[in-house]
Structures are given as structure tokens and as C-alpha cells.
Design goal:
It contains eleven helices and twelve strands. The protein is α+β, with helices and mostly antiparallel strands. It has two domains: 216 residues, Jelly Rolls (Sandwich); 102 residues, Orthogonal Bundle (Arc Repressor Mutant, subunit A), CATH 1.10.10.60.
């Protein structure tokens, strides 16, 4: 396990994943970036100093195993704001608190000085997440907002004094995802890159404060209240469907399998993933069928049967509506035949 400290996040002499930091992305002391296409095609990690009490991290990697590490909080309370696109897990804070960290969620935590956090992220095809580490004074300072101006739901983040550990979890909304996506796609270098990252971090913080003002943001959550456990179960439902594309199941069966009632599964899945359960499963099957056809190893009939279609005509109609092209446009590779002797 690796023990980390906030103050070491932007040390350019350290390696990350065996890589040295990329030259010229940031001025010394402003940030570090590690990037490679040699780790199964994906490895990116960046840390930016927003101020002496605030840091931004962005990570996207194709993991080969579960990740486990320990983080120690030193020097006053710290806030940890996690925005998880892909890859979930949990963290234990001391001996008393366990917090689920599911994908498609925002996890907001305040760690008292001296806290030891044991964090685990489960292996997945991709981990993609961003984090903001701030002291409470930096939270209100970056927002240029006095503590008493924060809405009640966010006041504990900026309070000068707060007893004990506290955590809250929200769905990762489109309003949050827009600036987070901008962070991952930024092409700037040097001081202007740090300025851009500061601006996007401010946008994220503003969006988060609005989301914590729950009465104002209830409509944006589709009218369904989702706990951290609910978010983890929604992510599990998504994985269940992706792992068993051939054998469909009813909404009721899927709800029982992941431990949610049908209404919360239907409304929550739509709120978090933007599609109904049925639409997500249909599109996932068609995407998998297209991958099989693009490989050139199978024909239309085999691709259709592999993803659970019993009738080729139904598969052809659905495929054409989804991709605008007939599945037979993808021709299988010609079989190799030995040439006759002589």
C-alpha cells in the first residue's frame, strides 16, 4: 500500500506509474502531468496547484488490478471532492466510517486532521475520475464567498470549525460533467493551462454548491433521492447487463438481483445514465454486435444470436435504426483455403 500526502501531489521529481512527469506542461510548482500510451493504451494523471490550500487531480487509466492505498491527512481539516466517471469502490475513514464511491457519482467528504483513509478502487476497463482537495478556507476563498453566504446544505464545507468526519454523495450531473470533461480535453500548456484549470475548478465548485442546495436541485435529479448505496446498486445493474448481453431480464428481475425496488431502479438509472434500463440494454447489445461484425470474424446471423436476438429481421431493423447502416455492410473475412497441389 502507498501512503500519500496532499503536499506531495505536485512534486516533479516523483514518478507516477513508473513514469516521469511530462516536460513543459506546467511551470515549476504549478502542476505535473504524466501521460503514456504504453500501459494497455491508456495512462493519464495530472495534479494542479490551484492555491497553497487547494489542488486538482485528474486521472484516466486502464487498470490491471484493484487499487489500494492509504492517505493520511496532515495539517487541519481537508475537503475531498471526488467526481467519478468510471470505476467505483469504497473508502474507510478510521475504524468507524465506510463510504461507498460508486461510478457516476460525486462524493464530498471532510476529513479531520489526523484522519487515515484506506481507499480501494475495483478493477474495471477504465478508471476515470477527478478530485479536488481543499482546506475549508480555500473552499470559500476560491468562491469569493463568506461562510455565512453558503446555502445550508453546503455550510459544513466552509465552516471554520467542524467536529468529526462528514460525507455526502450526489449523482454526477450533466452540469458537473461539462467542466470535468473540459479538464480532461484541455490542450493548453504553461501558465494559461493552470489559469484554465482554476477557472474550471471554480465552475465545478459553483455547480456543487447549487447541487447541495437540495430543494433547488431536486428537479435536476429527476425527482428521485439516491443514496451512495443506491448509486452503487445502479452501477451494479449496469455491469450485470453488460456482462450478460445475450440473456435479457425483466426490470423486476434486475431490481431483485441488485437489491433495489423497480421504481428506484427505473428512475435512478434514467437520471444517472440518461437512458431507460431497456434502452441501455438494447443499445449495449447492438454496440457489441457491431464490434463483432467489425472484427470480420462473424457474419450477421452469428452476431445477432450472440447478443440475444432470435430473429434476424428484428436485429436488422434495430441495427439499422441505431447506426444508419445495414449489418450486412460489415462483411466477414474470407476463409483461407489451401491451394490444390499440382
Amino acid at each position: 500500500m502507498q501512503v500519500t500526502d496532499y503536499r506531495t501531489l505536485i512534486d516533479p521529481t516523483k514518478t507516477y506509474g513508473g513514469l516521469a512527469s511530462t516536460d513543459g506542461v506546467y511551470a515549476a510548482g504549478d502542476g505535473v502531468q504524466y501521460r503514456s500510451s504504453e500501459h494497455d493504451g491508456l495512462f493519464f494523471h495530472e495534479a494542479v496547484r490551484l492555491s497553497d490550500e487547494a489542488y486538482l487531480l485528474a486521472t484516466e487509466v486502464a487498470p490491471t488490478e484493484d487499487s489500494r492505498h492509504i492517505q493520511v491527512v496532515d495539517g487541519d481539516d481537508w475537503l475531498h471532492l471526488q467526481f467519478r466517471f468510471k470505476g467505483g469502490g469504497f473508502e474507510r475513514v478510521g475504524a468507524e466510517h465506510t463510504v461507498e464511491t460508486p461510478e457516476r457519482s460525486c462524493i464530498i467528504s471532510r476529513y479531520p486532521e489526523g484522519s487515515m483513509i484506506s481507499r480501494e478502487i475495483r478493477r474495471a476497463d477504465t478508471w476515470k475520475y477527478a478530485c479536488l482537495y481543499l482546506q475549508p478556507t480555500a473552499f470559500t476563498g476560491l468562491l469569493d464567498m463568506p461562510e455565512d453566504a453558503l446555502p445550508e446544505g453546503a455550510s459544513w464545507l466552509g465552516a471554520a470549525r467542524h467536529e468529526g468526519f462528514r460525507s455526502d454523495t450526489l449523482p454526477l450531473t450533466p452540469a458537473m460533467m461539462a467542466p470535468l470533461s473540459d479538464i480532461f480535453s484541455c490542450a493548453y500548456r504553461g501558465p494559461v493551462r493552470r489559469a484554465y484549470m482554476r477557472a474550471k475548478s471554480l465552475e465545478i465548485l459553483s455547480t456543487l454548491v447549487h447541487a447541495l442546495d437540495r430543494p433547488a436541485s431536486a428537479e435536476g435529479r429527476g425527482g428521485v433521492k439516491l443514496s451512495a448505496s443506491d448509486l452503487a446498486k445502479l452501477a451494479q445493474a449496469r455491469e450485470v447487463m453488460l456482462e450478460d448481453l445475450e440473456n435479457g431480464m425483466s426490470l423486476a428481475t434486475l431490481a431483485r438481483r441488485v437489491g433495489l425496488n423497480r421504481t428506484k431502479l427505473a428512475l435512478g438509472f434514467k437520471a444517472i445514465y440518461g437512458d431507460s434500463v431497456q434502452a441501455f440494454w438494447r443499445d449495449a447489445r447492438l454496440i457489441r454486435a457491431r464490434e463483432l461484425l467489425q472484427s470480420g470474424e462473424v457474419g450477421v446471423t452469428e452476431a445477432a444470436f450472440t447478443v440475444g436476438y432470435a430473429e434476424i429481421s428484428s436485429f436488422t431493423r434495430a441495427f439499422t435504426r441505431k447506426f444508419g447502416v445495414l449489418p450486412k455492410a460489415y462483411k466477414p473475412k474470407a476463409a483461407a483455403h489451401p491451394r490444390p497441389a499440382g
